[in-house]
Amino acid sequence: MKVLVGGTRIRGAQSAASGLVTANMDNNIATTTVALVEGNANPTGVQLASSYHTNHIGDPMDLVALAQQIQKSSDFVRANASNRLTVIAEQIHYLQEQARKVLEEAKRDADLHHVACNIVKKPGNIYYLYKRESGQKYFSILSPKEWGVACPHEFLGAYKLQHDMSWTPYEDIEKRDSEIGIINKLLTQQVALPQCMEPNFQGLTN
């Protein structure tokens, strides 16, 4: 069977045993196999007077449409899988960045806990990090502003000791306190999240 569509010659050949039809387009287009319903001259035990009208392919253009539909469906399946894999790859990259950030902050916190200090550090207080000429780093409760021009050593930064014994840089204290405040409010009110079996986009479109 040969059909000419838009300048492209398409050949169709049907296998009677398998019910498969192969549509081949000459212009470097991949061959597409169309699965048709197998013919049966004796369905449900009833002998047909003529099986031609029930088993023949019909209009050759139907074969072309079937092949094009299968090819289009395959393209969509591939595109959807590619898009989903792209999202997964982005999520993996995000998680890798988060893991790197966690490790860096853990190392920083450990180093700060080993900094020289002559007082017992208490959570909730801000401590100021200085460096002596000898290279030793130490914590003080006096800020550079309180020292004034008499500040004896190089100021490296200020950190707040949190109740989980982590350190927050001075410039991030306000943001961190706000996050902790929201969490504490939720815990205090004992807010129970309602069970929702469907996607909830409330607040995203307002």
* Gross morphology: elongated
* Secondary-structure content class: alpha+beta
Low-confidence stretches: 1-21
Report mean pLDDT, rounded to a whole number: 79
Total strands: the figure is 8
Count of separate structural domains: 2
Distance between the termini: 59 Å
The strands making up the biggest β-sheet line up spatially as 1-2-3-4
Task: Please bin the fraction of helical residues.
Answer: 25-40%
Largest sheet: 4 strands, antiparallel
Number of helices: 4
Give, in order, the helices and strands. Answer: EEEEHHEEHEEH
Computed Rg: 36 Å
Strand percentage, roughly? Answer: 15-25%
Tell me what the structure shows.
- This protein has 206 residues and is α+β, with helices and mostly antiparallel strands.
- The chain folds into two domains: 1-36 and 56-111, no CATH class; 115-189, no CATH class.
- The chain contains four helices and eight strands.
- The protein has helices spanning 52-55, 60-113, 144-147, 173-189; strands at residues 2-5, 8-14, 20-25, 29-35, 126-131, 137-140, 154-161, 167-169.
- Strands 1-2-3-4 form a four-stranded antiparallel β-sheet, with helices on one face. A four-stranded antiparallel β-sheet has the order 6-5-7-8, covered by helices on one side.
- The two termini are 59 Å apart.
